[in-house]
Amino acid sequence: MEVPAISSETLGFLKGLRANNNKEWFESHRKDYDAARAEVMDFSDALKADLQGHDAIERTKLFRIHRDLRFSKDKTPYKPHFALSFSRLGAERRGGYYLRIRPGESFMACGFWDPNKEDLLRIRKELEQDAEVF
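User: That's the sequence. What structure does it adopt?
Assistant: Structure tokens below.
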């Protein structure tokens, strides 16, 4: 399955949200948001299928667009990006991937959260033996 590109309409919505990060603008563009969110979900499904070709992905998550404002000095209500996580197969593999889609500032990262002592030793030994793959 080929992973589709994110459309200019979705990126345009995110640009508009960044410039007009308020409830009134968001609600007046709710249909655009719903269409962009659906496109990102389809993109997520295709990317998960592609990742399954070389890794065991257990679940994906699309993070909410609403910001938690309780302890923030920045009171803008929305994140001007879409964020996805792809969790690797449970206890066997742990770790995962993270993707942020923001016009001009998108990135993908991978990591292994809170490795236990044995995992940390294995990671260090792997890098010690062959850091080229890393």
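The two ends are 26 Å apart (CA to CA).
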